[in-house]
Amino acid sequence: MELIVKRVVVGPLDTNSYVIFNSETGEGIIVDAGGDPHKILSVVARHDVEITGIYLTHGHFDHVLAIDDLRKDLNCRFYIHEKDKEILFQAPLDAESFLGLSIPKPPPPDGLIEEGDLIDIGGLKLRVLHTPGHTPGSICFVADGYIFTGDTLFAGSIGRTDLVGGDFGSLIDSILNKIFTLPDDYVVYPGHGPSTVLRVEKLTNPFVGEGGLFKI
Ligand SMILES: [Zn+2]
Ligand SMILES: [Zn+2]
What is the value of pTM for the model shown? Predict the structure, then answer.
């Protein structure tokens, strides 16, 4: 029994959505829902996954665009950290000012998640890590051997902190003192771009790696 991870690149900013499911029970979740619901749904259908919930790494519009369609189609709940509720509600404003895109107001979250919460996927678990900085309520999901980092840590980069609620010091602290305490061989599945391995980021990330600009 193991968790299978499928990456789907969606939406106007090429956001990664992940469909994660238990190889034996077929239960699964979706991490981030950045658009193109039909693309995500086709992955769910292809692997015959029974989705039990949608979990957001944070509330930016490029991670929430497909929420309403998905939760209606899959008849499941969606969850976010309480500190990103405001950012979720201002998603239409951000989409308008960044891309001139008109999007409907996202629904209010069905539930809230916080540091230490365990998400059960047919007996296998993801742990919630609160990693503020990119947004106040940014979270990561930690499984056995990998981590979903949202827009906090990317392959060779880090999340921006110049948007509403961003805080540079918190971002660096979250990466160095939370994410980087995980084992070197953990795979990183970020909110945009390719996956990487923690060892590589600890050594060569130009911001937080050895000798990096902001290594404290
Ligand atoms: Zn973001
Ligand atoms: Zn993003």
Answer: 0.96
